[in-house]
């Protein structure tokens, strides 16, 4: 599977220590181009920290992150960050900027003005009416705001999309719809996607590969199919038990 394809993103003994804890402990991992990876685990297990080491919102303590052949720590952080699509935990739009200004912010910081036609195209990608470009975030629903968050992440023509609990604040129906849209965008745009979520059901439904984190380490690295057939060990199976019990309970009602 991933072993055969060339490495797109590689963690090499990556560690991030804070005073009290090692948030990420010696993680080594290779992700191939085109994978949709879900990073799952309990709160505090180190998911966000690992993700942010890729675009240097967090500076690692030890080890390396390679994007293709490039060591992400070798150059300045700001241009790197603008090349990598990033959907924030929570929503993270600037409230006093219009939808269009929010989407165009990254390119603008690079000295590039996004034409209106490109903003319209990005809004259409996330299935929003281009007429929403002039609205303020407060004039949108939560789901619409997060669609704008995804459009903004795609504005830099990035091939790597990082998402930190992107749908966590949304109602289940909106969450399902947006998850599916992101999955199709991943395929249509040929992206490599890493999505942090604490929701194993979401990971199993959207990802091609599920990494389970526990206390700063990757303790399982499996396909959804393998996890559902009982692979991955204790921590992973405890997470899989949650949607499985729900599915059983629902099947019991309908029987
Ligand atoms: P997750 O995203 O899985 O909930 P995090 O990566 O946010 O986990 O956090 C992992 C661990 O690192 C936690 O114990 C957290 O308290 C700690 N941590 C994260 N960020 C900081 C920080 N800026 N300063 C100190 N400790 C931090
Ligand atoms: Mg987090």
Concise overview:
With 255 residues, the chain is an alpha/beta fold. It has nine helices and ten strands.
Any overview of this molecule?
- It is a single chain.
- The chain has helices at about 45-55, 75-85, 100-110, 115-125, 140-155, 170-190, 200-205, 225-230, 235-255, and strands at about 5-15, 20-30, 35-40, 60-65, 70, 85, 160-165, 190-195, 210-215, 215-220.
- It is of the alpha/beta class and about 260 residues long.
- A six-stranded mixed beta sheet has the order 6-7-8-3-9-10, with helices on both faces. Strands 2-1-4-5 form a four-stranded antiparallel beta sheet, with helices on one face.
- The protein has a domain at about 1-35 and about 40-75 and about 160-170 and about 190-255: Rossmann fold.
- It is globular, with a radius of gyration of 18 Å.
- The model has no long low-confidence stretch (mean pLDDT about 95).
- The chain contains nine helices and ten strands.
- Bound molecules: adenosine-5'-diphosphate and magnesium ion.
- Magnesium ion binds near residues 47, 48 and 89.
List the helices and strands and how they pair.
Layout (H helix, E strand, L loop, with lengths): L6 E11 L4 E11 L3 E6 L5 H8 L7 E6 L2 E2 L5 H7 L1 E3 L11 H11 L6 H10 L16 H13 L5 E5 L7 H17 L3 E6 L2 H7 L2 E6 L2 E6 L1 H5 L5 H21 L1
Helix pairs in contact: 3-5, 4-5
This protein binds adenosine-5'-diphosphate and magnesium ion.
Adenosine-5'-diphosphate binds next to helix 1.
């Amino acid at each position: 599977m991933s072993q055969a394809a060339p490495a797109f993103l590689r963690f090499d003994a990556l560690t991030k220590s804070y005073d009290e804890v090692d948030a990420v402990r010696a993680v080594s991992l290779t992700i191939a181009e085109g994978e949709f990876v879900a990073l799952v685990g309990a709160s505090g297990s180190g998911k966000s920290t690992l993700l942010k080491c890729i675009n240097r919102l967090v500076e690692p303590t030890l080890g390396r992150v390679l994007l293709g052949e490039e060591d992400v720590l070798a150059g300045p952080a700001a241009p790197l960050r603008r090349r990598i699509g990033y959907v924030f935990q929570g929503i993270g739009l600037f409230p006093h900027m219009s939808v269009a200004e929010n989407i165009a912010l990254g390119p603008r910081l690079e000295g590039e003005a996004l034409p209106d036609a490109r903003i319209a195209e990005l809004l259409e990608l996330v299935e929003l009416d281009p007429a929403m470009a002039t609205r303020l975030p407060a004039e949108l629903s939560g789901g619409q705001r997060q669609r704008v968050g995804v459009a903004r992440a795609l504005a830099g023509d990035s091939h790597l999309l990082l998402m930190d609990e992107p749908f966590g604040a949304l109602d289940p129906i909106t969450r399902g719809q947006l998850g599916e849209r992101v999955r199709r965008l991943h395929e249509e745009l040929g992206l490599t996607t890493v999505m942090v979520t604490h929701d194993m059901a979401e990971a199993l439904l959207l990802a091609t590969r599920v990494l389970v984190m526990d206390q700063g380490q990757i303790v399982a690295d499996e396909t959804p199919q393998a996890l559902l057939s009982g692979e991955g060990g204790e921590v992973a199976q405890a997470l899989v038990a949650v949607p499985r019990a729900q599915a059983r309970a629902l099947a019991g009602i309908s029987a």
